[in-house]
Amino acid sequence: MAKGAYIALIAHDQKKDDMAAFARRNEALLRPFSIVATGTTGGRVLEACPSLDVIRLKSGPLGGDQQIGALIATGEVSMLIFLVDPLSALPHDVDVKALTRLATVYDIPMALNTATAEILVRTLTATDTQN
């Protein structure tokens, strides 16, 4: 992963516990990287892993998704982990679709569940140590 690039973390309400648990399991792998997260998700990650470098933006529905989208568009995000809850109706679903579309357009690795997130973090951190 390029220097100065962020790993972006977002989780829907029903997935915030999963994100905190993911961060705890992978704290050592995430520690060398700067993380940008939507507000509540970032707070939960910091509670679980105070040693991580986490920049908290606004909450998703209040503009945090768009803030991360802007960082993707400017090349500042190298990986997106967005734990989605497919079983809950989301009033800001258009924001979610826009964010995943940007990740696809800018061809950055994106995980929408913890299984894929585990693979991405292990792969990117292994690649980073080889460069």
UniProtKB/TrEMBL annotation:
Q: Tell me what reaction this enzyme catalyses.
A: dihydroxyacetone phosphate = methylglyoxal + phosphate
- Record GO cellular component, one term: cytosol
Q: Does the keyword Zinc-finger apply?
A: no
- Give the source lineage, highest ranks first: Bacteria, Pseudomonadati, Pseudomonadota, Alphaproteobacteria, Hyphomicrobiales
- Which protein, by its recorded name, is this? Methylglyoxal synthase
Q: Which InterPro entries match?
A: Methylgl_synth, Methylglyoxal_synth_AS, MGS-like_dom, MGS-like_dom_sf
Q: Which organism is it from?
A: Gellertiella hungarica
Cross-referenced Pfam families: MGS (PF02142)
* Residue span, MGS-like domain: 1-131
Similarity annotation: Belongs to the methylglyoxal synthase family.
